[in-house]
Amino acid sequence: MPQSDDTALILVVDDEPEIESLYRLRFRKQIASGAYQLHFALGGMEALDVVKKHPEIEIVLCDINMPGMDGLTLLPKLLELSSILQVVMVSAYGDMPNIRQAMNQGAYDFLTKPINFEDLKKTIEKTKKNVQLAKQARISKELEERNANLLELDQLKTLFFTNISHEIRTPLTAILATTEQIKAAPDTWIEKGIPIIERNGHRLLDLVNQVMELRKLESGKPVEVQLFQGDVISFVQYLLEPFQPQLEHKYIQLNIQNDLPDLIMDFDPEKLTIIFSNLISNAIKFTPAGGEITVAMKAQAAALQLSVSDTGIGIPAADLAFVFDRFFRAASFSDEGGTGIGLSLTKELVELLGGEISANSQEGEGSSFIVQLPIRREAEPINIEQLKKTTPSVRPVQESIAFWGPNDERPRLLIVEDNIDIAQYLRSCLENEFLVHIAWNGHEGIEVAVENVPDIIISDVMMPVKNGYELCDALKTNPATSHIPIILLTAKADEGSRLEGLEKGADAYLAKPFNRKELNIRVRKLLELRKNLQLHYSSIINHPSGPAEVRNQEDAFLWNVRKTVEEHIDEENFGIAELCRAIGVSRTQLHRKIKALTNVSTSLYLRAIRMERAKKLLLETDLNISQVSYEVGFSDPKYFSSKFREHFGERPSDLRKS
Ligand code: ADP
C-alpha cells in the first residue's frame, strides 16, 4: 500500500465489528491508491493502544456510544496523546447534546449515523487539510525554538569572546609593559621583569589550555585519563601552595579539614589540578577581604569527598542551577572578569573521572562546591614528590605592596587593580612623582579612598567584589571624595562601556594595553584640571555664599562648611573637631578635601571665613572693632586685629577710616 504525505492516516473507533468491512468496501479505491490508510479499534482502550503504537495517525473517527470507555471519555485522552490529531465524532442523528459537548471539548467535526460516505469523504479531506496546518504550525514552532536557542548560544559566544579578550589582554599588558621597562632600564628591570613575564606567559598558557581542554571534551573523542596511585591529600595540599600569597593579600583565612592523615588512591594529577584550582581560585575571587575558605577532605563510602567552601558573596538561588553551564557568569557580577568556562570544564572533568560535583550557596553568605571521586587502587603507584616535579603549579605568585608613608608631601595616588603585575607596572610608572597605594578590588578601593582621600585614582573596571563603575559611583556621590579625579582602565575599549564610565563620573578612560607615555599624559592633564579647580576656589569670593550659588558637588561641600562655621561664628571654641562632627566627616577627610579644593589648610580656611564675616560687619554695620571681634569668635580684639591684618594686609581700623 503506497503511503505519502498526502495519505490520510485514519483510525475508526466503533464497537460494531461489521463496521470494518463496510469501510473497507466503501473506501477500497482510496485504500488501493494509498489516499487512505485505515486502522480499526472496537473500544476506547484499544483505540488508545493503537494510537500509541501508530503515533503517525492523524484522524480519528470516533463513535460516541460505546460500552466500556465511551467516545466522550476517550476524546480528551486522544488529544493529549498528539498535538496534530484531529477527532471527528460519530453519533446517532439527534444526539445533539453529546455532539455539542464533544465539540466543546475539542473535537474537530461530527457526523451522524447512518453514515453518508460521500459526506465522510469530504469531511476526511477537510480534516486532512487541518492536520497539515497543525503540522506546519508545529514545525514553525520548533524552528522558532531552535532559532531562539541558536541566538542564545550566539550571544553566549559573543560574551565569551568579550570575556576571554579581557582575560588575555590583562596578562598581555603586563608582558608588554614589562618589556618596555626592561628596554628603558635594563639594569633595574631585568631581574624583576623576567618573573613577571614568565608568570603572565603561564597565565596565558593556562587559559589556552582550558579552552583546548574544553574543545577536546566537546569533540566527542575519548579523552585520556592518566591515573596514578598516591596520597591524594598531600597532592591537594601541594596544589594549595601557589594560592597562599593571594589568600594573604586578601586577608582570607584558609582552614584545612582532613579526617585522614593520608589517603592513597588513584587520581589523574593533571585533571585534579584543573578541578581543584578552578574551585579554589573562584572561592578567592568571590570572597571579599577578611573572609574564610575551608578545604575539607574525607573518605565516604568508597569515595573521596573534597569540598571547597567560602564565606563570599554567594550565588543567587536562581543562578545556582546554571553555574556549571558553559559561559555562565551570574549576571549581577558580570563585570568581574572571568570566562564562565571554569566550572563547566571542572564538571566535565569530574564526570570524566567517574565522579560527581554539586554546589550549595546562600547569597551573601557563601558557597560550597563538593566533588566526589571514586576511591580505587589499581593504577601504578607514584611518589608525590615525583608528581610535584611533573605537575606545574597553577596561579601567579603575588607579592605584597607597601602602604602610603605618613609624612610624605608628594601627591597621593590610589591604584585599584586586581592584577598584581598591572598594579606594579602602574606603580613603577608613577612612583617618582606620587605616593602610591594599591587596593585589590573596588570595595577595598572605596574604603581606602574614603578614609584617606587621595589626590588621584587609577582604577580597573573589571574587578572582583566591586567593579570600577561601582567605585566611581560610590566616590563621586560621596562629598568627601567627589572631587578626586578617576581614570578608569579597561580592556573593553568599546564606546558603550566608555560612556558608562563617563556617566558614572570617571574623568578619563585608558584602554588596555596602554603605554607609559599615554598614562603620564592622562595623569598630568587631570592634575592640571585639578589646579584650575584650586585656582577657582583659592579665592573665597568664588565660594558660594548662599544655597542659590551652589552649582555642583564641590560648591555644595564648601557651602555646607561655610554655613556651619557661620552658624557658630561667635563661638571661640568652635574649631575643626566641632566642624567635623557637625558636617559628619573625619578630620582627614576634611583636611584633604579642603586642601585639594583650595590649596590651603583647614585652619586657615576656617580663619578666612571668620575674617570675611568680620570685614563685612566692619563695612556694613556700626559695630565697633571689639564688638566685631566678639561677633566672629575672637575674645581678644588685639589678637583679632593682628590676624585680620595677616589675612587682608590691613588693620580693621583702616577699613573704618575710609
Ligand atoms: P568564571 O571564569 O566566570 O569564574 P566559572 O565557570 O569558574 O567562570 O564560574 C561561573 C560563575 O559562577 C562565576 O562567574 C560566578 O558568577 C559563579 N561562581 C563560581 N564560583 C563562585 C563562588 N565561589 N562564589 C560565588 N560565585 C561563584
Write the CATH fold name of the largest domain.
Answer: Heat Shock Protein 90
* Rg of Cα set: 40 Å
Name the strands of the widest sheet in spatial order.
2-1-3-4-5
Number of helices: 25
Overall tally of domains: 5
Distance between the termini: 125 Å
User: Percent of residues in helical segments?
Assistant: 40-55%
State mean pLDDT (0 to 100 scale): 84
What does the main sheet amount to?
A: 5 strands, parallel
CATH H-level superfamily title of the largest domain: Histidine kinase-like ATPase, C-terminal domain
Structural category is alpha/beta
Uncertain spans, ≥5 residues at pLDDT below 50? Answer: 331-336, 393-406
Ligands bound here?
Answer: adenosine-5'-diphosphate
CATH class of the largest domain: Alpha Beta
Strand % is 15-25%
- CATH architecture type of the largest domain: 2-Layer Sandwich
- Please count the beta strands (DSSP E, at least 2 residues each): 17
How would you describe the shape? Answer: elongated
